[in-house]
Fold this protein.
Amino acid sequence: MPLLRSFFIALSQNRALRSFAERSSVGRKMSSRFVAGMTVEDAIAACERLNREGIAATLDSLGESVTKETEARRSADVYHQLLDAIAAHSLNANVSVKLSQMGMDFDPGLAETIVGELVEHASRVDSFVRIDMEGSPYTEATISMTEHLQSRSRDRVGTVLQAYLYRTETDAERLLDQRIRIRLCKGAYKEPPEIAFPDKKDVDTNYGKLARRMMTSGVFCGIATHDEAIVESLLTFVRERSVSKDTFEFQMLYGIRRDLQRRLVRMGFGVRVYVPFGPEWYPYFMRRLAERPANVIFLLKNLLQS
Ligand code: FDA
């Protein structure tokens, strides 16, 4: 399995395959398993469907690693449209952005200006900007930028920490001290054993420990996982420690474990679904296959049946 994971993560970075897949109709069809559509309207429609089921959303306009200011500004424009559409439709939703999509690779100052403008927009329309966490070269810069932005617009910005990194326990304390909202996930990139737990069971143990710390910190947090064993153990923890349902929400990805999403809603827990959309779906899609290579068989079966 770790070999297949590495294989799909390597494929997620392959430019030729990406450009072919994103243009092909078969590729687009396969992506619809995990991607809500190609346009802002598709994303808003998906969000409305989720809201009707009592599920909140966070919208992600797919794209990463831009190389020009014009591209970064174009990516930000989509997010400004999303924030306006969320307000206009009174949706229970916010947005998730990637710094590499906002120019971080060639001009960190530009990325901070652009994300700062999004956070100000989110403040005006009573929404929130989550800065997704990318691979480890971005970890420190993402945390520092979130800190700068939190000092300007309190509670309108938060970030993501990854349980597979050794440093995350320290980072969690650092962010909680400043009352910065954290989404906790396991981590979706390939990281070396010098900085990340190589064994999945250690990642899972660290996840449970960090989640418990965050859920009792008094700072609202997002518990982002589809791991039912972890979710069950946290539900027991919530019962035993009388943790208030208002201090956290479960978060899951669009199209994954819809049964579990609905069950948690029925139990009265907050659930938010991450809704990715847009024509640049390929790297996101490949990371989902890397997490669960069995998805390839599932997708191929679906294609052959249709
Ligand atoms: P794990 O991988 O152990 O899976 C547990 C179970 O969940 C599986 O047995 C299966 O049932 C189901 N499952 C998981 N992935 C699946 C898939 N692709 N297809 C079908 N079933 C699947 N990562 C990151 O590095 N930076 C980030 O900013 C984010 N943001 C983010 C937001 C949200 C809302 C979520 C839920 C996840 C992320 N992630 C992320 C991704 C995260 O790091 C991780 O890769 C995935 O969530 C998979 O890990 P699980 O915790 O679900 O556990």
